[in-house]
Design goal:
- Helix content is about 10%, strand content about 50%.
- The chain has ten helices and 21 strands.
- It has helices spanning about 1-5, 15, 40-45, 60-65, 265, 300-305, 420, 490-495, 500-510, 515-520, and strands spanning about 95-100, 105-110, 115-140, 145-170, 175, 185-190, 210-230, 235-255, 275-280, 290-295, 310-315, 315, 320, 330-350, 355-375, 380-400, 405-415, 425-430, 440-445, 450-465, 470-480.
- A hairpin with an 8-residue loop joins strand 5 (about 175) and strand 6 (about 185-190).
- The radius of gyration is 32 Å and the shape is elongated.
- About 20% of the residues are buried.
Length: about 525
């Protein structure tokens, strides 16, 4: 906006164009970046006659759309920056009246407000498969074995669609008032929001979004349990377990959701692309509230523009890519665990009519984790971790009489961090050009230790009547390693493996970006 404030009619065209959102710059793409087509695939590499930046006659560059006299969206301007002032937004809004209570505005009257109407749709399908096998065998009267194998897979396919249009600088007074109490505030747009003629697709601003996301979970697990009964009071159990768990998620969406044709370029009316949405039926809506507006119809948008085709058509580039969000939505984790355990179960009568039963055992568990994410440049980032735990436990219940139990338990337990925390994904990175300090980075950590806890439990239960229970309990849980987000400063080499650091350098070296010098400076 500061650059726009200094612009004049003499400002270079390329600089003027750079002030607009939603411009299109063609790129061939690479193994780590998505291609972008601005019309060259279907219409060639020659500009649309009379334009400065447009290659698709059906979907003009946002600058040409507003500033080329041959455009259906042309708006005359002395400085060649048509509509740009309206795109600034909030600074143009007039506050006519307001009331603030405890630092929060509970009453506002505003003029020159920008509006948008949006339709957002999500659909989801899950496919689940499972197989299991169990075998029990009695080797002797005292020794029994139980063997189990199981495998499962679930896959979630989700699709999202969104269409939007808007309105700049509405002169009507918008009123928001929540001071009247009740369940809902007054929300009065001040104009007939159900009138199609109030709305238009805002070139470069209105979104047309299509995205797909896939989540895949796979389990393979087995266990072998053996039980040896010394007598009616003492039993020894031992065995082993193994599990291979794989999780992966991937997201695909348009590289630029703002490069869209308008209804004027398509030669249709807004009325043909939407429908009236009603709101408030059956609700206690304050008198004067806006209860209807004209909103986009996603199916009508798709029928006209084909924006879910995952292709290039006459209207634009609708291809889906993994690289818009880079590593934020695409990563995988594989966790392999193994374990062996031994346990003694006991059940004895003690004192006069008292009964005590419980178990004493220990489990040894190993965990191997491999995770794959992406840097913000789309390059793979790999991490791994391995750890083992010895987990003893003791449980006893004493029954002084048939309706009274005293229970005590002590155990060491563990559980892995969340999958998102384990993914070596860079979710944010900013490297200042020409500086030696000041870079910021947010990254997952596959080296995280699991949650580990020491647990003590004591409970008294009185079953005073059939179906009735009174109980009291005391417990203490000490968590020794709790994964959390920590802010600290360190050299780049402390955050990245040598391979990941080389991948990051390759990104900036390939374009001659001086930020590579920052990384090398460590």
């Amino acid at each position: 906006n500061a650059t726009y404030a200094r612009a004049t009619a003499a400002t270079a065209l390329s600089s003027k164009r750079g002030l607009y959102p939603g411009t299109c710059t063609a790129t061939a793409g690479s193994a780590f970046a998505s291609p972008i087509d601005c019309g060259q695939t279907l219409y060639g590499t020659s500009l649309v006659a009379g334009t400065n930046f447009s290659y698709n006659p059906n979907n003009l560059d946002v600058y040409d759309y507003y500033n080329w006299s041959g455009s259906k969206g042309y708006v005359a301007s002395a400085d060649g920056l048509a509509i740009r002032d309206k795109q600034i937004g909030r600074p143009a809004t007039d506050v006519l009246a307001a009331n603030v209570t405890n630092g929060v505005a509970d009453y506002l009257q505003l003029r020159n407000v920008d509006w948008s109407a949006r339709a957002d749709q999500g659909s989801y399908e899950t496919t689940f498969q499972q197989i299991s096998f169990n075998l029990t065998h009695e080797f002797t009267d005292r020794l029994k074995g139980d063997f189990t194998y199981g495998a499962s897979r679930s896959r979630l396919d989700s699709t999202g669609k969104m269409a939007e249009w808007g309105l700049y600088d509405q002169q009507a007074t918008f009123t928001y008032d929540e001071r009247g109490g009740g369940d809902m505030p007054l929300f009065d747009a001040g104009f007939n929001a159900a009138d199609p003629t109030q709305w238009t697709i805002l070139k470069g601003v209105s979104f047309l979004r299509h995205h797909k996301k896939f989540v895949d979970n796979r389990y393979n697990s087995w266990k072998a349990d053996f039980t040896y009964a010394f007598d009616d009071h003492l039993t020894f159990k031992f065995g082993g377990t193994g599990r291979d768990y794989r999780f992966s998620t991937a997201s695909y969406e348009r590289q630029n959701v703002q490069i869209n044709p308008t209804e004027k370029e398509a030669g249709v009316t807004i009325e043909s692309l939407g429908k009236v949405i009603n709101f408030g039926q059956g609700l206690d809506v304050p008198a004067g509230s806006t209860t209807a507006w004209f909103g986009p119809d996603i199916d009508k948008f798709d029928a006209l523009f084909g924006f879910t085709c995952n292709c290039i058509n006459k209207w634009g580039d609708w291809r889906l890519t993994q690289f818009r969000q880079q590593g934020r939505e695409t990563f995988s984790v594989r966790e392999k665990t193994g374990g062996a355990y031994a346990q003694v179960n006991f059940n004895y009568d003690i004192f006069d009519g008292w009964n005590a039963f419980g178990n004493l055992g220990v489990r040894y568990a190993t965990t191997d984790v491999e995770s794959v994410g992406r840097s913000d440049s789309g390059r793979p980032v790999v991490g791994s971790n391995a750890y083992s735990d010895t987990l003893p436990s003791f449980n006893i219940a004493i029954r002084p009489r048939d309706d009274l139990y005293i229970r005590f338990g002590a155990a060491k337990t563990m559980s892995r961090p969340t999958l998102q925390q384990l993914a070596p994904t860079i979710t944010q990175m900013s490297i200042p050009a020409g500086e030696t300090t000041g870079a910021t980075l947010t990254v997952g950590n596959p080296k995280l230790s699991p949650f580990r806890a020491d647990n003590l439990d004591l409970a008294v239960e009185w079953y005073y009547a059939r179906g009735g229970l009174i109980s009291a309990a005391l417990f203490k849980k000490t968590i020794n390693s709790y994964p959390q987000t920590v802010r600290f400063s360190a050299p780049f080499s402390q955050f990245f493996s040598p391979e990941s650091l080389a991948s990051l350098l390759a990104l900036y070296d390939s374009t001659g970006d001086q930020r590579a010098d920052y990384i090398r400076g460590d």
